[in-house]
Amino acid sequence: MLELRKDIFADERDDNLKEIGKGTQRQDMLGHITGTSSYFGDHKLQGMLHLKVVRSAQAHARLRRIDTTEAERSAGVRRIIRSADVPRNLNTLLSLINFGKDDEPSLAVDKVRYKGEPIVAIVADSEREAFEAIAKVRIDYEPLPTVFDVEEALKPGAPVVNETYPKNAFIYHDVHDHQKLRFGDADAALATADHVLEQRYQMSPIEHAPTETNGAIAAPDTNGRYVVYTSTQALFFSVDTCAKILDVPSNTFHFIGGTVGGGFGGKVDTLTEPLAILAAMLTGRPVRYVFGREEEMQYGPPRGAERIFIKDGVMRDGRIVARKIRAYFDSGAYTRLSSYAAVKCAAHLPGPYTIPNVHGDVYCVFTNRTPATAMRGFGVTAMDFAIECQMDKLANLVGMDPMEFRILNAYRDGDMKAHRREAKNTALIECVQVAAEKAKWPIREEFRRASSRKDGGGSRAVIPPTPADARARPAAPVQQRTSYDRLPPTVTREPPREPPPPTPPPSSPRPAAPSHGATRFSSVFGTRRR
Amino acid sequence: MAVTVKTFTSAGEAAGALSSDRSARYLGGGTLVMRALNEGDVSISTVIRANDQALTRIDASGPRVTLGAGVTFARVLAERDLAFLHAPARSIGGPAVRNMGTVGGNLFAQSPFGDFTVALLALDATVAVAGGFGARDVPIEEFLQARDRQAGTLVLSVSCTRPASSEAFRYRKIARIKPKGGAVITLAAHLPVSGGRIAGARIALGSMAPTQIRARAAERALEGRSLDAATIAAAASAATEGTSPSDNALGSAWYRREIVGVHLRRLLSGQE
Amino acid sequence: MSKTPLQFRHNGRDVAIFVDGGTNLLVALRELIGDMTPKFGCGQGGCGACSVLIDGEIHLSCLTLAETAAGRSVETLDGMKQGPNLHPLQRAFADNFAAQCGYCTPGMLMAAKALLDRNPQPSRDEVVEAISGNICRCTGYESIINAILAAAGGRASA
């Protein structure tokens, strides 16, 4: 049962609160229990067509030939969409906030980079007819060497997964192939530590497995607009992504969503909306594109795998004096949101502990796996798994109780974190104390008396001398720009277009596109919100 | 080409239609055929049904038990005379799947499903099938070995001899999800005892090969012996002989080989 | 494409539709009758989101060939309310916070109804078994089990 421990930090607490600490009914509960909550798939539109994609059977291959002649003649087929039909067939999700280069096509162009990558979309009167046409598409692959391991991918001579990033690592601010954290001199501290423990941790990809699969229904609306019912978790993000890929102003779309049948991060990638809308544009009919369960499980993006190496120096009395971490985030074949995961991962080092010497290198690596995406604390969860396993091992190494070991090393108010920010409102010590109490885990009096508000700061607030890495720093990085936003700022928005004719939109060169989306995202650029 | 549904009143007519159409599949409870259609299996363009009462008959009064192919697991569980089959029936699906899934359909279910068939294999069941050339009885082992070629045959019923005691037949399904989930492995053992010694042991394994198989080496280790610790250890260590498990999301081939002996030992020694 | 006429009872009312060959009951209910309460989750029998009662027994509508429902009684969540009033199970689900995203809820409620219609006073284990074919990914099993037990208890005292 829920228990509020009001005795802890009682003087900081405002108990004159109306909602916190009380049960409040969800506003959507009545809809849920009567089955009237409206999910994207609950919209039945007259004359709706069904879209299915032909997915790559290869993990890495050049596309020699795509033959859709037989599929085009298949019963019930209304339209076959090929890569050339997609107005701007290259995107990266975070380009909306000027972060990263466009690296992923909606439909593969000359190469596939993971098994299951969409190559051709088929729009038919029924799902069955779409499936029958899929079976008639002939694709001639020229298999390429594959790489599935993050460390192998970074070695010289490894197969190039994604030509946008030829070294198989995401490039931050045009120069840095990884996220770097330096605080104090970890190597020197390791050399003088009583014990050194180096361990390797590997976390597998995790599928979100939402009960509702990813999907969207797009339909021509009045005034040349398109109404889009979608499972997206990030509606405005999806609107702008679609506007970019389809090269129209975002007010072309009326997105309806918000009621999502489970997302957990797996419904932010805007996987179905662009093709559903394009199909509605090309056919003039409502089009539904929904993942089957196998598609969702096999080709829907997972939480990315992470490989983490931790090398810690610890003294006999239990103080951790150095922590050196090397982490590889497996982004799969495209960036999606993994570049941001690596930033979060680096920002999380060295965990909620005050360690005077911290050294971190975090890589976002491309492999021929299904692209990874967001999932509940991505970038942090796996690192926490590794750090907390390591904490138990360290406690064992120095013969300390693992709870007491955490209290000893916990950060406290006033301490300097490795990111050169002062720790405030810390509460790890109290959490461990309550956890021990609840688990009836005995801890000694001095650890029961410890407080996040005592004994922090002072010498623990000092930023230690930090040697520069041997390699010379490159010239000052320019703000990374993408082709998408390399536009004169004076361009005005185009008026909404006429309803497109049932022919492919004109191919490039196209007029300057309007700009979309927000311009700042504090977590990525490191600007603080407060 | 759309799907055509053909419904017949007799199993014989259905069998005839099934054997004459390569794209036809017989619809039992729907848990395999409808699933395939939902996933876009375009090799199926005809669905055959039969409303023949004979397919849903249960004869459980005597020593020889016969279950119509269309008998659902819920009906097996509702039949007190079929208590020896309750553990395998209960291990399948949730309640909805047990209300739908049939004994006959389970013979075609591939790993990680097909648990009931593991029990039937240990019980040396006979499968009555109707094909283009009329009805015949096939030993279950023979049926499973040729399963890939059985799509055109209609299973009418399955029969087996009732085990002598509840001790003589044992069943165990290893799943990662409690209380339900696809099998990591499934084990069943029929251990008839004569004069204190095992005579005619049959051990069947699910998810240890492309179809359900017998663990013949383990059976040999039991034959003619009493079920003591040494015998059980010998059978357990022989459990992997002749197996060829594969990797899937529920477990690797390596893991399956590692645990099959452990679970066989527990099954034979009566441990939970 | 030839269509097959199909009649059955849907939440106590007779309905007649024409289905394409191979259409499953879930599609028939949602796209031909307009009852959106059963949900598509997997099409494989793995999730239970499409659960409906057929002649009072819990079935997976996505794995049910629509034609096999002919002449039978199909109940969905759409028919659970008693006039303007919530069914005790619906009330208990709300009171016990037994829904988060709500997508599994229709199937969960039908599985719970199938249980309580036959076994008004189930044990906790029986409740767990009854919803074992229904997946909730927002991790609400505990509150769902409590809700079903509360509905059973509420009924007994009423």
Characterization of this structure:
The complex is a heterotrimer of chains A (530), B (272) and C (158). Chain A has 530 residues and is an alpha+beta fold. In chain A, 22% of the residues lie in helices and 18% in strands. Chain A has helices at residues 29-34, 69-72, 127-134, 150-154, 186-192, 235-246, 273-283, 293-298, 338-348, 381-398, 402-409, 428-438, 445-448, 522-525; strands at 49-55, 61-67, 77-81, 111-112, 118-124, 138-143, 179-183, 195-203, 215-220, 226-230, 253-256, 287-290, 306-314, 320-332, 358-366. In chain A, the strands form three sheets. Chain A has a seven-stranded mixed β-sheet with strand order 3-5-1-12-9-10-11, with helices on both faces. A five-stranded mixed β-sheet of chain A has the order 7-15-14-13-8, sandwiched between helices. Chain A has a three-stranded antiparallel β-sheet with strand order 4-2-6. The longest helix of chain A has 18 residues, at 381-398. Chain A starts with 28 loop residues before the first helix and ends in a 5-residue tail after the last helix. Residues 475-530 of chain A have low confidence and may be disordered. With 272 residues, chain B is of the alpha+beta class. Chain B contains eleven helices and 14 strands. In chain B, strand 13 and strand 14 (213-214) form a beta hairpin. The mean pLDDT of chain B is 95. In chain C, a hairpin with a 2-residue loop joins strand 1 and strand 2 (13-20). In chain C, helix 2 (88-95) crosses helix 5 (141-157). The model of chain C has no long low-confidence stretch (mean pLDDT 94). The radius of gyration of chain C is 16 Å and the shape is globular. Chain C is an alpha+beta fold and 158 residues long. The chains are: A alpha+beta (530), B alpha+beta (272), C alpha+beta (158). At the A-C interface, helix 1 of A face helix 2 and helix 3 of C.
